[in-house]
Design goal:
heterotrimer, A mainly alpha (about 290), B mainly alpha (about 375), C alpha/beta (about 550), B: two-stranded antiparallel sheet, C: about 550 residues, alpha/beta, Rossmann fold, 6-stranded mixed β-sheet, 19 strands, globular
């Protein structure tokens, strides 16, 4: 029983489910689906060593198809189960509005190819919790893809990566009395999440760009996990790190500049979603 | 009630499945070239047809234009070829040398690397082309209307977002005008704050108004309530399905793609999830106002594409060597070409051939 | 049908309930008009009818409410959808899908009706609102009146017994509003649908209403009675009724036709007060528009050779249908739009060549939607923002004095988005008046204002004019123009078709004539004040 209470306290603390009535199945599903997504993206890291190169390479060309299908299934499982499969029109409309603003922000070209697409999902995840954050991240990316014609096999990776970024923001502690510290914390998170997004996004094509042995930074089937990690780290550092640091700094700067008013705004909306009848509290959460 | 259409959206969905699979399963430049030519021809046919039919139809689907597609193709190929040729110094047929002292790009430049860059660029382009044809043929609103029942809510969120975008752009204009009216000059990043916050506030206000209007028209009232037990049952089934996929994927990665247990677990997991989705979809009591016409030409398209899709998947899973191409030694630089397989990659052309030559208003 | 018993509702984080211990029964099958000062809780009241309040606004409810035998608080709005249809002020923000027909089918799909039923209901609704010709159109391409009729049709498809409309015509021009209201009247008469409608411009709608429900605000009890009985007791009345009340006309006339009898009797006793002649100083025009053409990117030709000269200290009302080019013209005066042909001189500057940011200091402009103008987090900050933007030193005392003159000083520390429409309108005005501009441009300033606020606005604008400001106001509010403007320019299809003294132009126009003017058909009497002053002059002459 105490364990149950502890679990509930944990859920409430990190707002895994808004009014924690039962150990949230949706939370578990989100966790498991995320794990599945992560394994799908990371599968190049644990490929069997004894495979013949030819066979394995031939298969890794269709592997992308398998991975895309698996991650789509995982995403669908999450989306249909969050909010117990019953999102209110408020949730849907607020999601839609955030995604629209996010997608428009993506159209605004920033310096050095930076785009402000993550800024809103991160703050929304922080303000409204893990589950909403995940949804906000993935819808924002999906909508901007629909808008720009960027639908393709990379999309599930983008949706997962953005969903995770926003969900992680939902785990951060709230400090309503120390708004300034809160913003610095979020800015730091925005920086790290910017790097993280790049780390995930390179994975989708890295195993499929077969490069021969000289280039030490490419994936090769059959090498050990550590070797693969080392190669990926090298590849990441050489090709992507600079961009990602830029993206992370951009996120952090945006949060420092606009985070406080945006957070206040989001919280203003939150209080409209609870109401009481007579003396009892009847909760009607986002 | 009936929407003007060239093909039934489900026929288009099948087309997308076949064409996207074709783009994903091979790196053989001949087959990719066949696919790209088929895609471009279809694209041209559709946009010509749309122009002829006039604006009515164009309102439903996005007008398809050539320029961005060709520009994209050019840059994709160029980037891919340059990047690959300059960074990969592997292969027997050396074209010329760059000084070794240049970091990353120094060393021999090989024909193999050049060709492989081209092949990768073609792969990307084929995939992009397939999706742009689909986007322009079906259009986001139809796409969202097609969403299966269990994705209905997610579809609504997306519909809202898509319809909010033009409004957000208008609001952006209005706010910029208002700021100028108050003498607000944007000098630094900080000056964007009022703009951005207002934009978001307007978006959220609209969202609440829209949600009010949706609820007032019965949205969400048709979802059969599920008791705690039913919810738990579905949740557990979802967890089981996800676990099946997870373990299967791990086995597949570690034991190799041919691992039967892994494949079985993955298939089981996928089926479990699909069953859960169907069950969740059933809870939603909702009917559809729009109907699409399923015409003989849709049947013809489906009849040709389904075996095509099955054949491609079969090849990819059972005889991947037939689709395999890798220019670097020890493999052959010249790709294989099998006319029967090539036919599978030409199938996406079919809609262009099945459409009647003279478009009528009802098409 | 609708029964409130000791019903209370309070918004979150407010001190007092908006609806306090309300007990009320609304009659079935009638047309009920809901009136009251802006911010008195009319919208809240309407939203309780299907449970949108509290479900969308949070807060606390108590007491009981039954609508067609159901409890909206427990049923939630979606459970009430087949009983209560709801239409909002801005139809566009309520549309879910892109095509008219799909919008109509949205509720039916949610209600899982079989397809042949859906088909029948959609056709019915299209015919009832006479929008069958729009069925394939994207909703974004419709005009304001068309959009509102689509929204009404979309609310009707579930065959609700009650149709609730929250200021449905406030954004429409008089003609479009008339069409919408006629359609509603017909729904009420032919189908027996109970209509509950709130509206500020009573002159448009009071003749259709069977009952008037008056919300005094401040927690006082509402008053429900037949229109003449209610109108006799309330301060918010259209000009005709204001006049009727002042002269003790019995029975109180609600329409021009009913009032004509009294007007005929009164006319011989009327002598106009002498018109105060105003010297306009300065030969140079404050605003000079020469041969102005403008075509939008989408090909719409909004202005076709407009000529207009406004002298310093003049008060001009630009009138005309929606889409006649009023707003486009105003935007040219501050350089927000550039002419394709022609020239705009504003205070001697070429508006096309001077940046808006600089022009805005001397030429204040309040756009149609004042909300867009507000950025800050408190009312006082809003004025400080303007000062910063124009590089003026901060001056809180002056800001507070300005707020006080507009009657919103007590709100100085509130969030602009928490204010009522009327308050936001005045705040927007304050935000651009900080710089003490010479020219003031207003685009539809009376949206959402009640009669008392409108009178206040007219009064205040006249004071500004008397202080030497030049005012140009685009409006289709005939009564405001009649009460305040010196000169009226009528626009149509991007041209100024009539331009002259307000009295002459309005007396000659059929559509843009004020109520009192329609009553007497005499350019010397446009407002109740004119008539009353005329009587006084007569009495003075006699006595």
């Amino acid at each position: 029983m105490t364990r149950m209470r502890l679990f509930k306290a944990f859920c409430l603390r990190f707002r895994l489910c808004a009014p924690c009535r039962l150990p949230s199945l949706a939370g578990l599903i989100l966790a498991l689906a995320s794990l599945l997504g992560a394994v799908a993206f990371l599968s190049p890291f644990f490929t069997a060593p004894e495979q013949s190169a030819m066979n394995s390479m031939a298969h890794s060309q269709d592997a992308l198809l398998v991975l895309v299908l698996v991650s789509l299934l995982a995403l669908a499982a999450v989306v249909t189960n969050l909010q117990a499969g019953r999102m209110s029109s408020k949730t849907l409309a607020v999601l839609g509005a955030l995604a629209a603003v996010g997608a428009v922000l993506r159209l605004v070209p920033g310096p050095g190819g930076f785009s402000a697409v993550f800024f809103l999902p991160i703050l929304a995840g922080y303000a409204f919790g893990v589950q909403f954050g995940f949804l906000a991240g993935l819808t924002t990316l999906l909508v901007s893809a629909l808008l720009t014609g960027g639908v393709g096999p990379w999309l599930p990776y983008q949706m997962f990566a953005a969903g995770w970024s926003a969900a992680v923001a939902g785990l951060l502690p709230h400090m309503p009395r120390r708004p300034r510290r809160e913003i610095w914390l979020l800015a730091a998170a925005g920086f790290v999440l910017g790097l993280f997004y790049g780390l995930v996004m390179n994975l989708w094509f890295w195993p499929f760009v077969f490069q021969p042995q000289q280039a030490e930074m490419y994936w090769r089937p059959g090498v050990s996990v550590w070797e693969t990690l080392r190669r990926y780290a090298l590849f990441y550092a050489l090709t992507s790190l600079a961009w990602d640091i830029w993206r992370g700094l951009g996120n952090a700067a945006l949060i420092l500049l606009f985070g406080a008013p945006v957070l206040r705004l989001l919280r203003r909306y939150e209080r409209r979603f609870h109401f009481a009848v007579g003396d009892g509290e009847m909760v009607n959460p986002l | 009630m009936w929407i003007q259409q060239d093909f039934h959206p489900y026929a288009w969905a099948l087309w997308l499945a076949q064409a996207a699979t074709a783009a994903l399963v091979t790196r053989n430049p001949f087959y990719l070239a066949v696919l790209i030519v088929a895609g471009l021809f279809l694209f041209a046919t559709l946009s010509k047809r749309r122009r002829r039919l006039g604006d009515d139809h164009a309102a439903a689907a996005r007008p398809a234009t050539w320029a961005p597609i060709l520009k994209l193709a050019f840059f994709l190929m160029l980037f891919s070829i340059l990047f690959n040729a300059l960074t990969v110094h592997y292969g027997d047929r050396i074209l010329f040398h760059l000084p070794e002292s240049w970091p990353l790009i120094g060393g021999p430049i090989t024909l193999e690397a050049l060709i492989y860059g081209l092949v990768m660029g073609m792969g990307f382009f084929a995939l992009l082309l397939v999706f742009s044809v689909f986007n322009s043929a079906v259009g986001p609103q139809t796409l969202l209307r097609m969403a299966p029942n269990f994705m209905h809510q997610a579809g609504v969120a997306l519909t809202i977002a898509v319809s909010f975008i033009p409004q957000t752009l208008i609001a952006y204009q209005e706010i910029r005008e208002a700021q100028r009216l108050r003498g607000h000059v944007v000098r630094g990043l900080r000056d964007f704050q009022p703009l951005f916050v207002s934009l978001l506030a307007i978006g959220l206000d609209r969202a609440i108004q829209l949600a009010e209007s949706m609820d007032a028209r019965g949205f969400g009232g048709n979802l059969a309530a599920l008791d705690a037990r039913g919810r738990r049952r579905l949740g557990l089934a979802t967890l089981a399905g996800l676990s099946g996929l997870l373990v299967g994927l791990l086995l597949r990665a570690m034991q190799g793609p041919g691992d039967a247990v892994g494949l079985g677990l993955m298939a089981g997991g996928a089926i479990a999830l699909l069953l859960v989705f169907r069950e969740q979809g059933r809870r939603l009591q909702r009917t559809r106002y729009r109907r699409w016409l399923w015409r003989p030409r849709d049947t013809a398209l489906a009849a040709a594409l389904t075996p095509g899709l099955v054949a491609l998947l079969g090849l990819a899973l059972l005889a991947p060597n037939l689709l395999f191409y890798y220019p670097y030694p020890p493999y052959a630089l010249t790709p294989d070409f099998n006319p029967i397989i090539a036919l599978l990659f030409a199938l996406p052309l079919l809609p262009a051939l099945l459409l009647p030559g003279k478009a009528t208003a009802m098409d | 049908m609708i029964h409130y018993r000791h019903f209370s509702y309070q918004y979150p984080e407010t001190a007092r309930p908006v609806l306090n211990d309300l007990s009320l029964d609304l009659p079935e099958g009638d047309f009920v008009l809901v009136v009251g000062p802006s911010g008195a809780g009319k919208s809240t009241f309407l939203r309780t009818l299907n449970g949108l309040a509290p479900h969308f606004y949070g807060g606390r409810v108590a007491g009981s409410l039954l609508v067609a035998g159901r409890d909206p608080v427990r049923e939630s709005p979606r459970g009430m959808a087949d009983v209560v249809g709801m239409v909002f002020q801005d139809p566009e923000s309520g549309f879910v899908v892109d095509v008219v027909e799909d919008e109509l089918a949205f509720a039916l799909e949610n209600w899982a009706l079989p397809q042949d039923t859906m088909r029948k209901r959609v056709e019915e609704a299209l015919d009832q609102l006479r929008i069958a010709h729009l069925r394939h159109r994207p909703v974004s391409s419709l005009s304001g009146g068309e959009k509102q009729r689509v929204a009404i049709a979309a609310a009707l498809t579930l065959h609700p017994q009650i149709l609730v409309l929250d200021e449905p015509t406030s954004q429409l021009d008089p003609q479009a509003a008339e069409e919408v209201l006629l359609a509603l009247r017909q729904l009420n008469e032919d189908l027996g649908i109970t209509i509950v409608l709130s509206e500020h411009r009573l002159e448009r709608v009071v003749q259709y209403a069977d009952w008037v429900l008056y919300w005094p605000g401040d927690g006082a009890r509402p008053l429900l009675d037949r229109p003449p009985a209610v109108l006799r007791h309330i301060p918010l009345t259209p000009p005709l009724i204001t006049l009727g009340k002042a002269l003790g006309w019995e029975p109180l006339p609600l329409t021009i036709k009913q009032g004509r009898r009294f007007a005929r009797e009164l006319k011989p006793r009327l002598h106009p007060r002498p018109e105060p002649t105003r010297e306009l100083n300065g030969a140079r025009a404050a605003v000079q528009v020469e041969g102005l053409w403008h075509r939008y990117k989408n090909g719409v030709e909004a202005l076709r050779g407009v000529n207009l000269q406004v002298r310093p200290g003049e008060f001009v009302a630009l009138m005309g249908r929606n889409g006649s080019g009023k707003s486009t013209l105003l935007k040219h005066l501050v350089g927000l739009l550039k002419p394709n042909r022609g020239r705009v001189l504003a205070l001697g500057h070429d508006a096309a060549r001077t940046p808006t940011e600089a022009l805005a200091r001397d030429i204040a402009y309040v756009p149609q939607n004042p909300d867009r103008l507000l950025f800050a987090e408190t009312v006082l900050d809003e004025l400080a923002f303007s000062r910063r933007a124009h590089a003026l030193p901060p001056n809180e005392d002056a800001d507070r004095a300005l707020l006080a003159r507009l009657g919103i000083e007590h709100l100085a520390h509130r969030h602009p988005r928490d204010l009522s429409v009327g308050e936001r309108q005045r705040l927007a005005l304050a935000a651009v008046l900080v710089t003490d501009p010479a020219v003031i441009l207003l685009d539809e300033p009376t949206r959402g204002l009640d009669y008392v606020q409108k009178r206040g606005l007219a009064q205040w604008l006249r004071e500004l004019r008397d202080a030497g400001k030049t005012i140009i106001m685009a409006t289709h509010d005939v009564e405001l123009a009649a009460a305040a403007a010196d000169r009226v320019a009528l626009m149509s299809e991007g041209e100024v078709v009539v331009d002259g003294p307000a009295r002459r132009v309005m007396a000659e126009s059929l559509v843009f004539a004020s109520q009192v003017n329609k009553l007497f058909r005499d350019p010397r009497f446009l407002t109740p004040e004119d008539v009353l002053a005329g009587l006084k002059a007569e009495d003075a002459r006699r006595g």
